Prior knowledge:
Adenine-n6-DNA-methyltransferase TaqI, Chain A, domain 2; 2 domains; four-stranded antiparallel sheet; 10 helices; about 20% strand; elongated
Amino acid sequence: MRTVPLGEIITPAANRRAEGSEYPILSMTMHGGLIDQASKFKKRIASEDVSAYKVVRRGQLVVGFPIDEGVLDIQNIYDFGIVSPAYGIWDVPNSSEVCGDYLKRFLRSPRAMSYYKAKLRGSTARRRSLPREVFLALAVPLPPLDQQRRIAEILDHADDLKRKRRAAEASLAELQDSVFVEMFGGLPKRTLGSGLDFVTSGGHGWAKYYAKTGEPFLRSLDVQMNHIAIEELAFVDAPDNAEARRTRTREGDVLLTITGSRIGRAAPIPEGLAGAYVSQHVAILRPRQDVFSPDYLSSFLCSMSLGQRQIRAAQYGQTKPGLNFDQIRDFRIPAADLEHQHVLRNVMAAARQLVAKAQLADEELAELVASLQSRAFSGQL
């Protein structure tokens, strides 16, 4: 299989501005590529004056930033659309030798991403750029056109499977919420604080995270909706003092993220993570055993129509939203008896098994896609 520099496949497009013409506005997303802004956001979010936006034809390559996160796409939505003037637009002139979908796939592949990351210039992470001459020097494997189309179709099919997996997981989350609301939504409410022994957050100033050694250290990224993700678990060499001991988890605790973009995620501590430390961005809620079961408390906090609605209403701050302990204690939670809470526990245990299976399937699918990409762009597919 021959390999050619990218500069032999693409050429700079003529710079045509929207000026006074009406075109659909296209936005670039990290994982979805180009999208119709109106259909995605249900409204126009571009500036009122789009005269400086660039016109992009069907079949042209649009390159955004950061390029090392695969922010690029072939425009195949409209005959003509417009994109931000910050984006680069390239022609792919020889359609008899190059399939646009194949080229897009390669330019987003791990192989190409590694090239971008190694060649970026600049000192500020998200402002680093790739010089044009370096971009055009990227070596592109170029099998015959029919093989390019076949590779693109196979990878499209794999992506479709991934989308269906994500949709199934979203449906499962909705089902859990529906079960909780159906069982408990109509009950009288009590304050959350009346059923807690205490609420605290993790300590500040942890010096290091370790990959394999030390004590488990739970961060906000580890707290998902109703489960703790352990795939990237961090560890710390923790000090043995009163504050550190106070902020270690116990069996029966529930974690709640209280700052940043992940605010409002909650999960009970699973077996094996009692005694873990937590970051300052995570609150430890310790329910009274005669009032709330951990699964019940976590399910309430994750319920979109009950706990999540109160979390959204209570959080403060625009740039970095947060929750304080008094707000958490004031949440209104259905006053269910323990017998019915334990029924929910069995339901949630079954749901977590389904989630675990779905996550395993996602991991296996991700490995399959990575293998397909590696084989495709080395001539083995």
